[in-house]
Design a protein that fits this description.
The structure holds two protein chains of two kinds. Chain A is of the alpha/beta class. Chain A has ten helices and ten strands. In chain A, the strands form two sheets. In chain A, strands 6-7-8-3-9-10 form a six-stranded mixed sheet, sandwiched between helices. In chain A, strands 2-1-4-5 form a four-stranded antiparallel sheet, with helices on one face. The longest helix of chain A has 16 residues, at 167-182. Chain A is globular. Chain B is an all-alpha fold. Chain B contains twelve helices and two strands. Chain B has a two-stranded antiparallel ribbon with strand order 1-2. In chain B, a hairpin with a 2-residue loop joins β1 and β2. Chain B is globular and about 60 Å long. Chain B starts with a helix and ends in a 9-residue tail after the last helix. The chains are: A alpha/beta, B mainly alpha. The interface between A and B is medium-sized, with 24 and 17 residues. Chain B: One of its GO terms (biological process) is amino acid transport.
C-alpha cells in the first residue's frame, strides 16, 4: 500500500537517507527502529512531504506522492502523530480533534469518529473543553493519536509515541495501537522502545546511519544477534 | 459626572474604530509574521471610498458593504503578487517591502486626489440625554465597527475556517498535516486584514478630515494597540483599542488635544517596560 522506493534524502549537502526502500502492506503494523540520528524521523518527514527526496519515489496505492505539498498528502489520508506530539496547545481537546478532521467534509462522519476516539480514550472525553497544553504528557499523546485518527487515515504513522510518557501510560498506548489496527488502520511505527515495537510489529526495518541494514518479521528480528546487541543490550 | 460619561462614551466609540484597524494588523502579524507597514494605507483608501460614496449620494458607512469585498480582493491581489514572497522571510524583508508599498500607495493617492483635507461627513449633530452628548456620526461609526470586530472574533473562535487560521498561526507545519493549505490561509488572512483596515477607514472618514497621508497617524495608534494587547492577539487588540480611545479622549479633555497624540507613544513605552507580552499575551 505505502511504498518507499530507493529514496535519497539530504539536508543541504549532508545525506540523511541513502537508497532506503520499504513497504507497508494494508492492515499491518510496520516498525522502524534505529539509533538516534539513523534517519527515522527524516523518513517520516519525507513520507508526509516536508522533505523531498533527491531521487527515488514514495507511492501510496501505486500513486506517486513524493513532491506533493504536505497538505495534499495529508488529504490522501496519511496521518502523522509527530514526535513531541505537536498539539495546538492553546486550543481545547475538542478543537484539536476538529482540526484533525479538517479535510473531512461530512459532519456526520466527523461526529461518529469523535465518538469513537472518545470511546478509545475516555479521559479525553472528560477533558474535552480543557486547553490541550494543560493535559499531562500521556493525555497529550493520546490526544495526538486521537487527532490523527479523526481524518480516518488509511495509514497512521507515529513518531516515538512513548517518548516522555509515564510508564503506566506506555502500556495503554501500545494497547491502543492494537485496537486501532483491529479497526483496519495500517500503522507505521517509529519507536525507541525497540523491544515492544518489534514484539508488536508484523514486519520491521532497522535503520543505521541512513540505510536499511536489516529487515524481517518482528519476532525474527528480536532473535537477531545484532538487534539483541545494539538495541536490547543483550549478549 | 455627565462630562465624564461623555468622554468615556466618546472614547469608547473611537476605540471601536481603532479596534477594527488594529484587529487587521494583529491578525496579519499573528498568522503570517508580517509587520504590515502599509496597513494605514488600506485605511486611507477606505476614507476615500467613503468620500466617493458620499459624493454619489449614498450614506457613507454603507460603503463597507460594497467596498469591503473589493478591499478583500485587493488584499488577496497584493498577497498573490508581492506579499507571498516575504512570508517566512526575515522580518527586515517584510518591513522593507511593506514600507515601500506604503510610500507607493500614498504618493499615488496624492497624485490622484491631491493633498487637501476632506471629510465624508453626512450626519450632523449629537444625541443629548441628561447632559451626556454623543455625536450621531460617531455613534453610528462606533457601533458598526464593534459589530464587525465582534463578528470577526466569533469567526476566528468558532468557524471551521477561523479554527484553521488559528491553527496555521500556531504552527504551520502541524496545520498542514491536518490537511490545511497554509498558503490559502495566508491569502485569506491578508485579504481580511486589508478589508478590516479599509472598513475602519470608511468609518473614520465620516468623522475626521483626512488627506492621503492619514494612514501615518493611524498606523502608529494601531501599533500601540497591538503592543498593548499582545502581538497577534485579536481579543487583546480589541480591549487595548477601547483603552486607547478612552485615554486619548481623557487627555484631550483634561490636558490638551495636541498632547493626546502622544498617548499612543507613552502606551508603547510603558507596555514594553512593564508588560512586554501585552495585557492578554502570555510568556
Amino acid at each position: 500500500m505505502l511504498e518507499v522506493d530507493k529514496i535519497d534524502v539530504s539536508y543541504g549537502e549532508v545525506p540523511a537517507l541513502r537508497q532506503v526502500s520499504l513497504r507497508v502492506e494494508k492492515g499491518t503494523i510496520v516498525s522502524i527502529a534505529g539509533a538516534n540520528g539513523a534517519g527515522k524521523s527524516t523518513l517520516l518527514k519525507t513520507i508526509v512531504g516536508y522533505l523531498t527526496p533527491r531521487s527515488g519515489v514514495v507511492r501510496l496505492n501505486g500513486e506517486t506522492i513524493s513532491g506533493l505539498p504536505a497538505y495534499q498528502i495529508a488529504r490522501k489520508r496519511i496521518a502523522l502523530v509527530p514526535e513531541g506530539r505537536g498539539l495546538f496547545s492553546d486550543m481545547t481537546v475538542e478543537e484539536n480533534l476538529a482540526l484533525g478532521a479538517y479535510s473531512v467534509p461530512d459532519r456526520g462522519v466527523i461526529a461518529k469518529r469523535r465518538a469513537w476516539v472518545y470511546e478509545l480514550f475516555p479521559r479525553l472525553s472528560e477533558r474535552s473543553a480543557q486547553v490541550s497544553g494543560t493535559l499531562s504528557g500521556g493525555e497529550q499523546q493520546l490526544l495526538a493519536i486521537g487527532r490523527g485518527l479523526m481524518s480516518g487515515p488509511e495509514i497512521l504513522m507515529l513518531d516515538e509515541p512513548s517518548l516522555g510518557v509515564m510508564p503506566s501510560f506506555v502500556d495503554r498506548i501500545f494497547e491502543v495501537l492494537g485496537e486501532i489496527r483491529k479497526s483496519g488502520t495500517t500503522i507505521l511505527l517509529v519507536e525507541q522502545n525497540v523491544d515492544r515495537s518489534l514484539r508488536m510489529a508484523d514486519y520491521a526495518y532497522i535503520l543505521q546511519t541512513g540505510e536499511v541494514v536489516l529487515e524481517g518479521k518482528g519476532e525474527a528480528l528480536l532473535k537477531n544477534d545484532m538487534v539483541r546487541h545494539a538495541f536490547l543490550g543483550l549478549a | 459626572m455627565p462630562e465624564l460619561l461623555t468622554i468615556l462614551i466618546s472614547g469608547l466609540l473611537m476605540g471601536c474604530i481603532y479596534a477594527l484597524l488594529a484587529g487587521g494588523l494583529t491578525l496579519i502579524w499573528g498568522v503570517m509574521g508580517i509587520v504590515n507597514l502599509a496597513h494605514g494605507e488600506a485605511l486611507m483608501l477606505g476614507c476615500f471610498a467613503a468620500l466617493y460614496f458620499a459624493a454619489t449620494g449614498f450614506v457613507p458607512p454603507l460603503a463597507i458593504v460594497v467596498f469591503g469585498p473589493l478591499f478583500f480582493l485587493f488584499g488577496v491581489l497584493l498577497y498573490v503578487t508581492i506579499i507571498r514572497r516575504i512570508v517566512n522571510a526575515p522580518e527586515l524583508m517584510s518591513l522593507l517591502l511593506t514600507f515601500g508599498l506604503s510610500i507607493f500607495i500614498k504618493n499615488v493617492a496624492v497624485l490622484a486626489w491631491g493633498g487637501e483635507l476632506r471629510i465624508a461627513s453626512y450626519l450632523e449633530g449629537s444625541f443629548a440625554f441628561g447632559g451626556i452628548y454623543v455625536s450621531k456620526a460617531r455613534l453610528v461609526a462606533g457601533l458598526i465597527a464593534i459589530t464587525i470586530s465582534l463578528g470577526m472574533y466569533a469567526f476566528l473562535r468558532y468557524a471551521r475556517q477561523g479554527q484553521a487560521i488559528r491553527a496555521v498561526a500556531f504552527n504551520r507545519r502541524i496545520a498542514e498535516q491536518c490537511g490545511i493549505n497554509a498558503n490559502a490561509i495566508y491569502m485569506i488572512v491578508f485579504g481580511l486584514g486589508t478589508a478590516l483596515a479599509a472598513a475602519a477607514g470608511i468609518l473614520a472618514g465620516t468623522i475626521f478630515a483626512f488627506t492621503p497621508l492619514v494612514g501615518e497617524q493611524f498606523i502608529l495608534k494601531a501599533f500601540a494597540i497591538t503592543v498593548l494587547g499582545g502581538m497577534g492577539n485579536f481579543l487583546g487588540a480589541l480591549i487595548a483599542a477601547l483603552l486607547l480611545g478612552v485615554i486619548e479622549q481623557s487627555v484631550t479633555y483634561f490636558i490638551d488635544a495636541q498632547i493626546s497624540a502622544a498617548a499612543a507613544f507613552v502606551i508603547i513605552i510603558l507596555t514594553l517596560l512593564f508588560r512586554p507580552q501585552g495585557i492578554l499575551g502570555s510568556r
